[in-house]
Amino acid sequence: MTDETCESKIYVGNIDQRVPESNVIKMFSPFGKIISEDFLWHTRGPKRGEPRGYAFIQYSAKEEALLAKTKMNGRFVSGRPLVVRLASEKHLGDMESKFACAETKANDARSSTLGQMNRNAKIAAIRNKLKSLEEQGGCAPKKPRLLTNSLPPGNKDHSLTGYQESD
């Protein structure tokens, strides 16, 4: 795909499953001449034949794609805001520099560290809660049960089990 093709192609996401392909074309045709439209469907699995919730629309000019993006991004359709961006923008939004990519990677690394810290903090909080409950007597630790079959063979002392053997 050439740069020119990428610049005139838009991604349309967060499309409600009830919105038919023909309505997507009708919504985006006022902004320019649509050369192609690719409405994606699930091809296997339990959702086979259902819409995937996104499409790609190719306009004849970059300006048309930019106009569609400007006018339709965030517009509510069937109760859901559409996500419209140039196909070349991928997940970065309007930031197309290498610095934005590096910043995203740094944020991902920070969030995974914070996620681990949050997990450890949660574990510590649970331990503290259990300890305070034990101290209050609200949650006594379980005492091990003595199983009746745990007596050695030949030992007839069943005083702990409540079983009485008749002579």
For the termini, the CA-CA separation is 94 Å
Note the beta-strand portion. 15-25%
The total of beta strands comes to: 6
**Secondary-structure class:** alpha+beta
N-to-C SSE string, H for helix and E for strand: HEHEEHEEEH
CATH superfamily of the domain at 4-86: RRM (RNA recognition motif) domain
Give the helix level as a range of percent.
Answer: 25-40%
Radius of gyration: 32 Å
CATH class of the domain at 4-86: Alpha Beta
From the 3D coordinates, which CATH architecture of the domain at 4-86 would you assign?
2-Layer Sandwich
Mean pLDDT across the residues is: 76
Poorly predicted spans: 92-114
- Number of helical segments? 4
What is the CATH topology assignment of the domain at 4-86?
Alpha-Beta Plaits
What does the main sheet amount to? Answer: 4 strands, antiparallel
The largest sheet has its strands arranged as 2-3-1-6
Tertiary shape: elongated
Protein name: RRM domain-containing protein
Keywords: RNA-binding
Region (Disordered): 134-167
GO molecular function, one term: RNA binding
